[in-house]
Amino acid sequence: MLEPAVARQLRQIVGQRHFRDDRESLVAHSYDGTPMLQHMPDGVIYPESTEQVSEIMKVLSAHRVPIVPRGSGSNLCGGTVPIQGGIVMVMHRMNRIREVDADNLTATVQPGVITADFTAHVESMGLFYPPDPSSMRISTIGGNIAECSGGLRGLKYGTTKDYVIGLEAVLASGEIIRTGGKLMKDVAGYDLTKLLVGSEGTLAIVTEATLRLVPPPESKKTMLAMYKDIYGAARTVSRIVGSRIIPATLEIMDNPTIRVVDDFAKLGLPRDMAAILLIEQDGESATVERDIERIKDICASEGADRIDIAESREQAEKLLTARRSAFTALARLRPTTILEDATVPRSRIADMVLRINEIAAKYGVSIATFGHAGDGNLHPTATTDARDKEEVHRVEQAFEDIFAAAIELGGTITGEHGVGLVKSPFLEWKVGAAGVELMKGIKTAFDPDNLLNPGKMFAKETRKRVVIDRG
Fold it and tell me: Cβ(238)–Cβ(295) under 8 Å?
């Protein structure tokens, strides 16, 4: 319960309308995109400026009140569930695009800007911001920065961290710091910009970002390659990149995903395929034509049963939209959908998909797999029912085995969703005990009283490492 004096001070900073502690507001901010996680905050606040964020933090720091910064709450790792109560700080009022600097190819934006709106704005000016998380129509730039969001274009263009070159942020104490700027080179001390990107709101609250922009590609072409042998699809991925071709998009869908996406998007996909690759190349027209022909030859040589090239931009967008809708399509099957992510070297994609299928069969659960084949980032997605506790337990056991399999194959427990609450028991599996302690030391330096998104990233107890017996 928040002390009345603290609530009064917060209302004085943002105004009566922008601090809420009514039950409806508390319930609405007690959960995020992660299923089966909920905890009530003590209040919800909507700042309008960096100065307000600073004043809020000074009040909360003085009274040792936890704070959870939040964008649209679309994350899938429990990253914005206020598990220790306190205040949820929603950044949607800080939604201005302050500047697009065509001379320096940068944009300066507040954290509450919706990703798709920002992308459309810079594209209308003849510029390009490549990061494209599947949630881009609702996710915010600040949320993307907190989670270091990826997307379909990650293979060629990289992820959010590759485009954030400067930040303004507020520390737990209320102090305001500024890192980086409109610079392509800056080695003045530790790279605090990159440290804050992906820190999941545990180190500071981002209040402004300077983002790198690039010229837009001249042309694009999109194709589907369909395989009855998943290893053929995986070999194709390795051969494309090994041939020094870096597609803008190189996605994979397994058979269960193909069936559900086709039911949802009505594309007429062949439902007997083991895997489909969605491939897009962009760049100069001549290069795109050459690369698409080379990719087509590679697909054919690796046993693609059918290869379709989109005949128009509208058809290509329909294919890309269908891939982005995979989670939505799967969510129609059962009351509860758990979308996870794990990353392996791209040469182990087929091994990982088959391991996921084996693990799903072992525990008698339904898991479909899709993801970013080009960078090895897969999204095994379980459809279940939260009311069936026994089945949910089997799903959780299956995901533990999946994380262990990813590590065994040279991968990691998360490629883009983040650690948050859900993956925190497994963080030590990837970075080791010494790595976890080092990260805790960084957290303490930034936030000595553990007020910023407490309970995330670091679990009270590391999960015992799964040893998979494969006979």
Answer: no
Strands of 67-204 (E only): list them: 67-70, 87-90, 97-101, 106-109, 164-170, 176-180
The pLDDT tens digits of the residues spanning 257-269 come to 999 998 988 888 8
DSSP state of 271: T
Give yes or no for residue 350 having a pLDDT over 90.
no
Mean pLDDT along residues 361-373? 95
Q: Between helices 313-324 and 255-265, what is the axis angle to 10°?
A: 120
List every span in the chain annotated with CATH 3.30.465.10: 97-212
For residue 209, how many C-alpha atoms fall within 13 Å in the half-sphere facing its CB? Answer: 31
What is the distance between the alpha carbons of residues 404 and 118, in angstroms, rounded to a whole number? 37
The closest of 152, 117, 416, 141 to 282, measured between CA atoms, is 152
* Residue 287 contacts residue 261 (beta carbons within 8 Å): no
Report d(CA 455, CA 424) in Å as an integer. Answer: 9
Helix 230-242, helix 285-301: angle, nearest 10: 140
Single pTM value for the model: 0.94
- The pLDDT tens digits of the residues spanning 373-407 come to 999 999 999 999 999 999 999 999 999 999 999 99
Q: What is the pLDDT of residue 322?
A: 77
| Intervals of CATH 3.30.70.2740 along the chain | 333-421
Cα distances (angstroms) measured from residue 259 to each of 81, 236, 274, 369, 441? 33, 22, 10, 12, 47
CATH hierarchy code of domain 219-323: 3.30.70.3450
CA distances from 112 to 94, 444, 453 (A): 5, 27, 18
